[in-house]
Amino acid sequence: MKFNQLETAIGYSFNEKSLLIRAFTHHSYKYSSIIGNSQPLEFYGDAVLDYLTNLYLFEYGISYDDKMLRDLRSSLTNNDTFYQLADKFKLNMYFLCDFDREKYFQKPKKLADLFESLVAAVYLDSQMSLPKTRKVFFKLLGPLLDKVLLDISLKPIQELMKNHKIRYMERRVDKGHFIVNVYVDDIEKPFTGYGTSCLNAELDAATKALNHFKELDKTGEKVEEIED
Questions:
Q1: Residue limits of the RNase III domain (predicted)?
Q2: What is the pLDDT averaged over residues 212-217?
């Protein structure tokens, strides 16, 4: 397949075509001593993707604790996520090697590595321009990231609704900040959540409610005061 087809698909035209070819060259390929190979780019691309993913989470307005942020980042940047993208754009068809390409890419990690090397190639070719790399990154990963993030971020609300009765919610905005009061089971005082969006405030309230019930399970006593 011609590399210009890939450039059209990802919405980026390389200034240095050799860098694009290098990103798809296995180290054992007979011409790799001339072209170079993708291995160094894989490590570089991993770091770039980690940064862009953190940027995405920040722009999304996520305001969770460190553990949840780590879990979200891990889910967004795992091999299965990148495998889906690499498979969608048929990146394996551009791979230069002297062996059975189909057998080689039976392992999802191999396609994920290829995706990482492509991102690194874009970053380097654009003179290390994060805005340009970010544009390609979100064009490829944007829709999938939205789905993964929504599925993961809604878990606290889903868990609370599954195991407890939410009587009702109160929502209001105060000086640009969202505040949500969630009334659960027979508890008189609400669990109050805060956030830069209504969803974030609801998730904050749900997380506080779940933590309350977990603590209750540990002590076996009713916790009278519910802290914000």
A1: 3-127
A2: 86
